[in-house]
Amino acid sequence: MTAPPFTVKYTPETAAAAPDGRLFSPSFSRNFEPITDALRPLLEGRGGALLEIGSGTGQHVAHWAAAFPGLTWVPSDIHPEHHASIAAWARVLAPPNLAAPLHLDAGGDWAGTAQVRALGPLAAVIAVNVIHIAPWPVAEGIVAGAARALAQGGDSGGALVFYGPFRRAGQHTAPSNAAFDAALRAENRDWGVRDLDEVAMLAGEAGFGPARVVEMPANNLLAAFPRA
Question: How far is CA 58 from the centre of its chain?
Fold first, then answer.
C-alpha cells in the first residue's frame, strides 16, 4: 500500500502527520530502495529476528518487513509517540513478521533486558540515522549490545549495520556533510557526524570483523560489521 503524500518536518517531537497516527520520514522516499538493495546480500535467505534500534516513524521497518518476509523485524524506540506511529504503520501495511515495538534505551544495557533475550540470538541489529543525532555513548551502547545479542559464528553469524553520514579518516566526504555536522553540533554539542574509523575501532574491540561498506546516495554510507 502506498502512503498518502504527507510532508512533515520529522523530529522526535513531531505530532501525528496523518489521522491514523502514522508519522512520515522525509528521507523515506529517497533512501528506502538504496538501503534495501544494500541489505539484500546480508539478509536474503536469513531467518530469525532482526532488531532495529531507533525505528522512529516505523515507516522503514514496516516496509522492510514486507521486503524480507523470512525475518522477524523487531522495531524499538525510546519515544512513546514513535511507538504509536510504528503501530499505525503495522496496521496499514499488516506485515505478519513485524513485531510490536520495544522500548529500549540504546545507550543502556538493552541486550540484557528480558524482552531482547527472549528473541534469541539475533540475525542482525540495524541503526539507521541514529548515532549522529545521539551522544557517543549511544553508539557505544549499540555496539556493546549487538556484540552480546547477535548470533555468532562463521557465515551464520549476525551483523551490526549502521547507515547514515560518516567522516572517513577524519575528513568529511562532502561539503554538505560538513555543513550538516556543524548544524548538528550547534543544536547539541554531543551530536555530530561520526568518523567511520572510530566506529570500526569500537566494533573491533567488541569482537566484530571489518566492515563491509557500501557508498549510498546523498553522501551516506552503509557499514555492516560481521559478528566474528
Answer: 11
For residue 114, count other CB atoms closer than 10 A to its CB.
6
Name residues whose C-beta falls within 8 Å of residue 149's C-beta, 6 or more positions apart in sequence: 51, 111, 116, 119, 121, 122, 125, 158
Buried b (16+ CB within 10 A) or exposed e, 123-144: bbbbbbbbbbbbebebbbbbbb
pLDDT band at residue 8 using 50, 70 and 90 as cut-offs: very low
Q: How far apart are CA 145 and CA 171, in angstroms?
A: 28
89 vs 156, higher pLDDT: 89
Residue type, 211: A
- CA nearest 42: which of 75, 74, 64? 64
What pTM does this model have?
Answer: 0.91
Please, where are the H alpha helices in the chain?
28-43, 59-67, 80-93, 114-117, 136-149, 175-187, 196-205
β-pair partners for 227: 208
Per the DSSP assignment, residues forming a β-bridge with 127 are: 53, 162
Position 216: which residue type?
A: M
Other C-beta atoms closer than 10 Å to the C-beta of 207 total 15
